[in-house]
Design brief:
binds nicotinamide-adenine-dinucleotide, Rossmann fold, alpha/beta, seven-stranded parallel beta sheet
Length: 338
């Protein structure tokens, strides 16, 4: 099938555009001749992630909070596609502060969705999460079968999917939720208590500190390099509605976005050692520390990506070997230049 795979000559709003995934989306879209509007409040995103785009005449920054409806309405005006990434990530953060996670991830989401349908955007693509599978022990994860969510973060992402479906049925807005599985790559924040595992481990090795593994390292994840997520967002925005849902009255689908692999935490650390030793051979002597399992963490997570492959033409080209190599190279270059 001949598919359009790249968004070009469009106006695209990236909420959370100063964050990890959002800033990568801004970069790809600017390079493909789009007008990009980035809406971000810099709560977990960084100016340095978008500094180089600020000079670009096709880039507009709206500094604002998605909890404010007027801000969302202003941001989506005359926009073709919304790629909604803004949210407070992290399971532990949501357990510590469920109120703020819910305000941003649920109320903020509904603001963006409602503003988008009022502005009649062509499609609303949003970041959901593998956390919606909760306590389901089925592997690999299939979109149709979820379990009980295990954290306020997971509840917030599940509620996004329910709202999106409800709005599609009620108002006709086309929505696609992408259930990302442990995304990693350039510009992911390695610092702080809520840092994701891969950048956190790379930073520890760089500083010659011991990486801390929660549990015995046997938990496994479907680690997904960020460029696969770039492809998924564009396919989700562009794939014609009838190719996804046929004659169905409305479009409100969710897709697993991952590589379909399974790597344990111990294995990922070994891969990181192998890559990082290329830059600093002293790293070999640093041993990890094994700590307690974190509340709300699921033991194993692996996606079935058949639905996205079949209906969107998703083809995750960056496997764990290429992804880890690219990520280590990027972090090393950046840390060395600080
Ligand atoms: N990184 C992953 O592995 C992963 C996995 C599953 C789902 N997700 C989802 O993908 C999306 C992007 O995640 P990320 O890893 O890039 O996180 P990130 O924290 O780097 O980016 C989120 C961005 O949203 C912005 N933001 C937060 N609250 C806001 C508010 N109230 N108003 C405006 N902007 C706000 C932040 O400042 C930040 O720039 C999130 O929705 C996240 O839940 C990420």
């Amino acid at each position: 099938m001949n598919r359009k795979q790249k968004i070009t000559k469009s106006v695209v709003l990236v909420s959370g555009g100063a964050g990890f995934i959002g800033s990568n989306l801004c970069e790809v879209l600017l390079n493909q001749d789009n007008k990009v509007i980035c809406l971000d409040d810099f709560s977990t995103g960084y100016r340095e992630n978008i500094n180089e785009f600020l000079r670009h005449s096709n880039f507009t920054l709206i500094e604002g909070d998605i909890r404010d409806y007027e801000t969302c309405a202003k941001a989506v005006k005359n926009v073709d596609f919304v790629l909604h990434q803004a949210a407070l990530g992290s399971v532990p953060r949501s357990i510590k502060d469920p109120m703020t996670t819910t305000e941003v991830n649920v109320s903020g989401f509904v603001n963006m969705l409602h503003a988008s349908q009022e502005a009649k955007v062509k499609r609303f693509v949003y970041a959901s999460s593998s956390s919606v599978y909760g306590d389901s022990s089925d592997l690999p994860k299939l979109e149709a079968k979820i379990g009980k969510p295990l954290s306020p973060y997971a509840v917030s992402k599940l509620s996004n999917e329910i709202y999106a479906k409800n709005f599609s049925e009620l108002y006709g807005i086309e929505t696609i939720g992408l259930r990302y599985f442990n995304v990693y790559g350039q510009r992911q924040n390695p610092n702080g208590p809520y840092a994701a595992l891969i950048p956190n481990f790379i930073l520890k090795l760089y500083k010659h500190e011991q990486p801390v593994i929660n549990g015995d390292g046997s938990y496994s994840r479907d680690f997904t390099y960020v460029d696969n997520v770039m492809q998924a967002n564009q396919l989700a925005a562009l794939t014609p509605r009838d190719q996804i849902v046929g004659e169905k009255q409305y479009l409100a689908e969710v897709f697993n976005i991952a590589c379909g692999g399974s790597t344990t935490v111990n294995e990922i650390l070994q891969r990181l050692y192998k890559e990082c030793i290329k830059y600093d051979s002293d790293i070999e002597s640093i041993k990890p520390i094994y700590g307690k399992v974190r509340k709300g963490d699921v033991p194993h997570s692996q996606a079935d990506v058949m639905k996205a492959e079949k209906l969107l033409g998703f083809d995750p080209k960056y496997d764990i070997d290429i992804g880890i190599e690219k990520a280590c190279k990027w972090y090393w270059g950046r840390l060395m230049n600080k």
